[in-house]
Amino acid sequence: MEFVIELTRPDDLTLELTQESIFVLLSAAEQRTELRIGEVAARAGVSIDAVRYYERLKLLPRAGRSAGGFRLFGPESVERVQFIRQAQELGLTLEEIKGLLATGGAEECRRVRDLLSKKIGELDSKMTAMKDFRRTLAQHLSACERELKTHGEAACCPVVAGSKSKPRQGRRRK
Predict the structure, then answer these.
(1) pLDDT above 80 for 81
(2) Tens digit of pLDDT for each residue in 115-124?
(3) pTM of the model
(4) Is residue 70 classed as helix, strand or coil in its secondary structure?
(5) For residues 47 and 17, is the Cβ–Cβ distance under 8 A?
């Protein structure tokens, strides 16, 4: 397919739209280093509003603007937004994340080290509590399975019966 547009004024241009020129245009678009906000959001797996919010909180560097007023971000913004999202999922606040993303010297590095150490301790505590709770749930599951195996349809759930205020008298329905 080939289109040729010819203009009749002296300073007119000729535009040929061929497969080769389309390929060149597409390649140039892929090689551009600036991303619009929607592209950053899609690649990072967040909403456009989240990217705007991170920019407003200065978690992302202020985006430049295109001639049409669109925000233009560098490709590193995608990784930064992904890091912010992952850090939030692990329990860090946006203020803590902001501290991690700040650049600075040895004093700031110590502050970041201390924050990371504190968060690791918090995660370890949560993991210990979750393991304990899992162990409790597994014990309840075993008790339910034993009750059902022993009494079938006449079973009395030991988890529910054990959680009531009255202690069991050792009687079971048969």
Answers:
(1) yes
(2) 889 989 999 9
(3) 0.53
(4) coil
(5) no
